[in-house]
Amino acid sequence: MALYEASGGEEGGTLEGRPVVILTMTGATSGKVRKTPVMRIEHDGIYLAVASNGGAPSHPAWYHNLIAHPEVRLQDGAQVHSLCAREVFGQEKAQAWKLAESRWPYFPDYRAKAGREIPILLLEAVNATHDGPATT
User: How large is the greatest C-alpha to C-alpha distance in the chain, in angstroms?
Assistant: First the structure.
């Protein structure tokens, strides 16, 4: 992460050739600054964060952080955004899955082996209004 941040996303910014972004958030219980890379899934300025944890049976720690403290700093290459996270459900989540699976082919496998419902959070401008992510 340090290389990614220091280079403005020029280095250290991919996973298996696909881009990642860095989320900076507040720890749910510690209150400390926490950072994590997540797959870059963006459409029209709205980002998705899929709490797949690689298909593990538990949610990643960052999911709990974002639920407790939804304000997040997201670095996408040289661009830095202040966003707010919110979990999606129902049709909005179904649309989000279409977009997510078009960007990372392992999500269907993760969903099959996790044994839990994998949360998806939208990361958007605080005053954003929309009907969910587009699937293009």
Answer: 38
Helix (H, G, I), strand (E, B) or coil at 92: helix
Q: Kindly state whether residue 135 falls inside one of the protein's structural domains.
A: no
Q: Which residues contact 74 (CB under 8 A, 6 or more apart)?
A: 21, 22, 23, 24, 47, 80, 81, 83, 123
| Per-residue pLDDT tens over the stretch 79-131 | 999 999 999 999 999 999 999 999 999 999 999 999 999 999 999 997 755 55
Q: How far apart are CA 86 and CA 61, in angstroms?
A: 16
pLDDT reported for residue 17: 78
* Count of domains for the chain: 1
Q: How confident is the model at residue 16 (pLDDT cuts 50, 70, 90)?
A: confident
Determine, yes or no, domain membership for 136.
no
Higher-pLDDT residue of 8, 96: 96
Name the residue range of residue 68's domain: 2-124
- Is residue 91 a part of any domain in this protein? yes
CATH number for position 6: 2.30.110.10
CB 66 within 8 A of CB 49: yes
